[in-house]
Amino acid sequence: MSTADLLVFIAVCATATFATRVLPFVALARQAEHPLILHLGRYLPPAVMMILVIYALRDFRPLTDGRLNVAPDGWPLILASLTVVVLHLWRRHALLSIAGGTGAYMAMVQLGGTP
Amino acid sequence: MPKRHAWHEASVTTLPVMFGYLPLGAAFGILAIEVGIPAWGALLMSLVIYAGAGQFLAVALLAAGAGLMEVAVATLMLNSRHLFYGLSLLKRFQGAGWRKPYLIFALTDETYSLLTTHGGERDLDHAQAFRLSLLNQLWWVLGSAAGVLIGTTLTFDSRGIEFALTALFIVLTLEQARRLRQWLPFAIALATGLGAVALLPDRHLLLGAIGATTLILLADHRRRQTQREALSP
């Protein structure tokens, strides 16, 4: 692939990506105060956050060959998530919850699981 | 807020994103080099495309020799969930001035999450939103650069570190729940999210779930409106 081809390719990707981000701002610029838009602004972010959690955990498989799955896509995922929830409900310190959960996940993935 | 303090606060807020973006960006860099994209090309992609899944898709399409039309359509499809992010930020970004184009350009899943959750009771001001967005992209570009440089030799066993992004989403969901104290959006998301996992192929999952949620919220708005009209004579 020539340099020019690669540049065109990147330009197409960049334009398509930016288009999806900018379209609502261009198309609905005058509607920002519309009650419908305000309704979405209020309720969509929490819903999206929940969906992103489900998306991040979508690969969870509780069992492999009838046994508890301890690989990275098994119980470590759930245990680490619960660690985050418990830490956050307890101390409500975002960094602590995230670091604690991530540390727990890394330990489980690196020490156990993969044979 | 003094400027230095503001930058410091922004870097602390984006720390979880950094833990996700550095390894993910590095993975992208390594992959890009592997399929034969030159180092400058990989870095340019992280600078001007700046989309996690989107860039992995781009590498795959490039390796498969896909046509430009195909590339454009696939990218639009994959990133169309961003349409809904913009919808809920129309008002927030009003009056952001010269920062606005960049705020829109840099609207990834993670930046959207930070911008819509942080700032306590009052919304973040535009300058702080800009700092968060810029730092997040900096982590992404640095990660990509590391991936390009290091190639495939990793000195630190970082397996599992990408869980930081999952943890971030969990924390932000809890914060949103605390702030809103209503179960409706979470119940809708649970239904559409699990439904999408069960029914849709991976690449349409987020779009399907977020699109369905938006439609349900629109229907809910209409229902409330008719209720209000029925109540007032």
Q: Terminal Cα separation of chain B, in Å?
A: 49 Å
- Tell me the structural class of chain A: mainly alpha
Strands of the widest sheet of chain A, in order across it, are 1-2
Q: Give the oligomeric state of the chains in this entry, treating copies of one chain as homo and distinct chains as hetero.
A: heterodimer
Tally the beta strands of chain A: 2
How much of the sequence of chain A is in beta strands?
A: under 5%
On the 0 to 100 scale, the average pLDDT of chain A is 88
Helix and strand string of chain B, N-terminal first?
Answer: HHHHHHHHHHH
Rg of chain A (C-alpha, Å): 21 Å
Total E-strand runs of chain B: 0
Please count the helical segments of chain B. Answer: 11
Number of domains of chain B: 2
Please tally the helical runs of chain A, counting DSSP H or I stretches of 4 or more residues.
4
Keywords (chain A): Membrane, Transmembrane, Transmembrane helix
Transmembrane segments (chain A): 6-28, 40-58, 70-90
Protein name (chain A): Branched-chain amino acid transporter
Pfam families (chain A): AzlD (PF05437)
Would you mind describing this structure in some detail?
The complex is a heterodimer of chains A (115) and B (233). With 115 residues, chain A is mainly alpha-helical. Chain A has helices spanning 3-27, 35-56, 75-91, 94-111; strands at residues 63-64, 67-68. Chain A folds into two domains: 1-42; 57-115, no CATH class. Helices cover 71% and strands 3% of the residues of chain A. In chain A, strand 1 (63-64) and strand 2 (67-68) form a beta hairpin. The two termini of chain A are 41 Å apart. Chain B is mainly alpha-helical and 233 residues long. Chain B folds into two domains: 3-159, no CATH class; 182-233. In chain B, helix 7 runs parallel beside helix 9 (163-180). Chain B starts with a helix and ends with a helix. Chain A: InterPro entries: Brnchd-chn_aa_trnsp_AzlD (IPR008407). Chain A: Keywords: Membrane, Transmembrane, Transmembrane helix.
